[in-house]
Predict the 3D structure of the following.
Amino acid sequence: MLFRNRFLLLLALAALLAFVSLSLQFFHLIPVSTAKNGVSSKSRKRIMPDPVTEPPVTDPVYEALLYCNIPSVAERSMEGHAPHHFKLVSVHVFIRHGDRYPLYVIPKTKRPEIDCTLVANRKPYHPKLEAFISHMSKGSGASFESPLNSLPLYPNHPLCEMGELTQTGVVQHLQNGQLLRDIYLKKHKLLPNDWSADQLYLETTGKSRTLQSGLALLYGFLPDFDWKKIYFRHQPSALFCSGSCYCPVRNQYLEKEQRRQYLLRLKNSQLEKTYGEMAKIVDVPTKQLRAANPIDSMLCHLCHNVSFPCTRNGCVDMEHFKVIKTHQIEDERERREKKLYLGYSLLGAHPILNQTIGRMQRATEGRKEELFALYSAHDVTLSPVLSALGLSEARFPRFAARLIFELWQDREKPNEHSVRILYNGVDVTFHTSFCQDHHKRSPKPMCPFENLVRFVKRDMFVALGGSSTNYYDACHREGF
Ligand SMILES: *[C@@H]1O[C@H](CO)[C@@H](O)[C@H](O)[C@H]1NC(C)=O
Ligand SMILES: *[C@@H]1O[C@H](CO)[C@@H](O)[C@H](O)[C@H]1NC(C)=O
């Protein structure tokens, strides 16, 4: 009896924790209008009613742990919620790859010992892990556009290679896929049981971690899928800009943004001191240490509970970590304020958003192709899309982050279509710049698809502040 009560208490606690963590995620998501000029910070409204006091002071370690996205109890998610007379038409999923090994090493230190082979009885567990490995070993090159067919289909090194997906990363996406399966397939019947190859659209960058993340999600979504019905396209650009990547004005925004970043760093004397101390510990010039982007490696130590590296001069420690992470958070804050990144994002995200609404438009016309689209991508893909949509207050994309566009049809008015936008399971539709005023103007419960179309075809360029009304002109504006 006592045992049972304690179990129930634990369960309740877990549910509470999951809820609190979700609420906290809401908390930092404050919409900013991109379409209008001169919007003061006063007119920003919080997603959740402000509970008595101001939001908690940003805690760098807490933020870092959210970024790790360590698999735990199933989270609450808002995907697939709509009034009963709405029918789900198509779903477009953008993911960041799951947990990976660092891309850089901290010079002259031993790199963290993390095992990238998949082992079913090692944490984090997933009931489908073993079946996933076995299914991947049956895959063939015919399912992948070159050069993807030369990549391994799952991580497999006893000491991870640089940037390799870890077991944590695979489990994160198996979970994502399973969650989407329960909602979109079991509940909303997005695809028929005998779905065909052309009902899926699958695209990934050419890194093993994005391909493997996409496969893990797909396996969670469609367990034991028929390999003959799978075709992953290769996307050479991290912006997913396909044939429309040339955009000089976008690059100018990026250069200015990088200059802003550099100046902010110079102003932070505590940060400089911290890099200096760390450089002394590992015995390299400060410049070399900084260039090795130590935060990336330190995050891996943190996410995997491996202590920070030591040398005979001392140890890299949590205080160093906090200073660098706090600076990152400060940098994101200034980035939103100065809006250079917004300019970059509007142009950078246009091609993929344009492609997505094209796919949605074909679905509204009753075509049955590409009803489920999956883009397996990077933080540098998701971040500009979020920013362009007016969700710049959303948290930086964590490992295995997911951004989803749902297209719905009103059964009572079959010509009317609506969209929902979800970020990590949170409904952010009414915080996007194309639907944040919707409730004031319209009694409809859902965001009209036309709003998104108008935004991508026109308002994105208006938001840039020039006189351009299309992508080509905006990319080639003189005298910017
Ligand atoms: C992290 O590692 C320490 C020992 O190195 C261990 O005591 C602790 O329980 C671990 N924490 C988690 C969350 O696994
Ligand atoms: C946007 O999509 C349409 C087709 O839906 C295409 O004709 C047009 O070239 C695209 N524009 C850009 C800039 O990608």
The first helix runs from residue 2 to 27.
